[in-house]
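step: validate -> pass
step: tokenize input -> pass
step: predict -> running
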Amino acid sequence: MNTGQYISGIAHFGLIGWALIGGVFQPAPEPFDVTEVSVISNAEFEAMMVPTTGPSLETDLAALTPPEPDAVEPAAPQAESPDPAPVSAEPEQTAPPPEPETAPDVAALLPPDPPTEIEDVAPVLLPPTDAPVSAAPDTSPAPKPRPVPRVAPEPVAAPDPEDRTDDIAQDQAVDDSTADTQQDQQDRTVEEEAATEIVTEAEQGASHAPSSSARPRARPVQRVAQPEAESTTGTQDAVRGALAEAMAAGEAESPKPATPSGPPLTSGEKDALRVAVQKCWNTGALSTDALKTVVIVSVKMKPDGSPETETIRMVSASGGTSGSANQAFQAVRRAIIRCGANGFELPSEKYDQWREIEMTFNPEKMRIK
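step: predict -> pass
step: emit ->
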């Protein structure tokens, strides 16, 4: 037989045997905890939940009557006998009184007292009594007439600023358009402000301001100790000597500006440079204020005739505002950079003369220094 068949047969026999006898080796089940439960109705449950009242204690405190003492029979008279000799008897020891028994506390077992009802009664407010009010004394000064430039039998109030003043008051304008005889139209007029009396300076209210003020105290003079004349003279001489030495050293160290060598530029060479820059100077984009502005620009040149762009600066401007001057300077700067990119045609032997150039840009005419 083939090996695969042996393996298959052994596997099948093992599976069948495990199915037959596999349940024998299962562990015993663990015991369950069982609790007995009884079912009751709602009525029984409510009866169980009713609070039970404690036993009532009836304290019957009967009046304890002390026992009546037994009747003592009178003793028979005995014959008188001589008094015996006094015998010293030991004093009897009296037993301590018994401790009173403490009564049990029954306050906790008694029913609680019913709560007392509290009535919310609003308090009665008494009506306010009208207390006598004392009148404050009127301490304000009596009004006094204001000084006016006109005096009349009857006082006249100050007119409005829009009204027209006249000697005779006219209530409203009179229109004589319907009359036979035409007269000049009269406008509304009012009388000028007037008073019945002349108010003098003596009648005016006195001012509470003081008529004169006290003179302020003078500041204390600080006394400065004056140095001796000899030390001052010596210090001044030392300072003068130090200043003279410093000025001499500064003059020796500061180099004198080198004078340009070679012949100056001719008028033809200047005109050629002006025409070359003017070709790139676009004045059509400038505003009206910029066209009225004259700008002086300084620029340093390289030996090959091209400008150093970082050295282009505005020396001065006139004839316009700061905004128009800046606009004109930017147009000039673009013209110098654009036309000088390949270098201007300038004589190399005169480089010291055109090393630094100042150009005046005027919309009317242009000059070069």
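step: describe -> The CA atoms of residues 146 and 285 lie 70 Å apart.
step: cleanup -> pass
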